[in-house]
Design a protein that fits this description.
- This protein is of the alpha+beta class.
- The protein has a single domain (2-7, 59-203), classed as Glutaredoxin, CATH 3.40.30.
- Helix content is 20%, strand content 20%.
- Residues 1-16 and 20-51 have low confidence and may be disordered.
- It comes from Rubritalea squalenifaciens DSM 18772.
- Pfam families: Thioredoxin_8.
């Protein structure tokens, strides 16, 4: 088991969320997996961060970590080399190969990883039942750091209720965006990332 400690650590994702229940067998999967799932999650209006844009309106998780120290990101198996996160923003994508919206998000995350390669590390953390399920996925190709935790320990700590679920962590180890990446008040794209990074830099002046 490897644990990544994040202490110092441009397209809109118009996606639907996958229900975070037991992974269905391949033969049992249907279009219903790609429908928007009704989640119960934290909703809040107050912009309580000391800098930067407001958070997602609905985070679809039991625990609101916005403006709090990020949890330990537990990676059981790295499918790439382990990233060096010091001094960088870190974007963690909680996902699974069986989740259609998660797979559709990968090209967008590839783009974010490329555009912000000097400032941000993207990590795809799969909750699949084995690392081979990610290794054997032919398309889309993941062009950022990738790992697996079959026990979904960090996901359980956060209380994630649907995937994909993003956690953006600043270089000081604080969560500055969390939630299901969608449209409207849950918009998360290159413009949002750029605004967060610029606001962080301005706050450090």
């Amino acid at each position: 088991m490897r644990a990544l400690f994040i202490l110092t650590a441009a397209s809109t994702l118009l996606l639907a969320a996958c229900n975070k229940q037991a992974e269905p067998a391949q033969s049992e999967r249907s279009s219903t997996e790609e429908a928007i799932v009704g989640h119960e999650g934290i909703t809040f209006d107050k912009h309580d961060h000391d800098w930067g844009p407001a958070p997602a309106k609905n985070i679809y998780a039991s625990n609101n970590l916005f403006n709090q120290k990020a949890p330990e990101i537990i990676v059981e198996t790295w499918l790439t080399e382990e990233p060096k996160t010091e001094g960088k923003f870190v974007l963690v994508d909680f996902w699974a190969t069986w989740c259609g919206p998660c797979r559709r998000a990968i090209p967008h995350l590839n783009e974010i990883a490329y555009v912000f390669k000097d400032e941000l590390i993207v990590i795809g953390l799969s909750g699949d039942s084995s690392a081979d399920k990610v290794r054997n996925m032919k398309s889309p190709v993941i062009e950022y750091y990738s790992g697996v935790d079959t026990k979904k320990r960090t996901s359980a700590e956060i209380g994630i209720k649907g995937i994909p679920h993003l956690l953006l962590i600043d270089p000081n180890g604080k969560v500055c965006w969390q939630g299901f990446p969608g449209g409207g008040e849950n918009k998360f794209d290159s413009e949002v990332v750029r605004a967060i990074i610029d606001a962080y830099k301005d706050s450090a002046k």
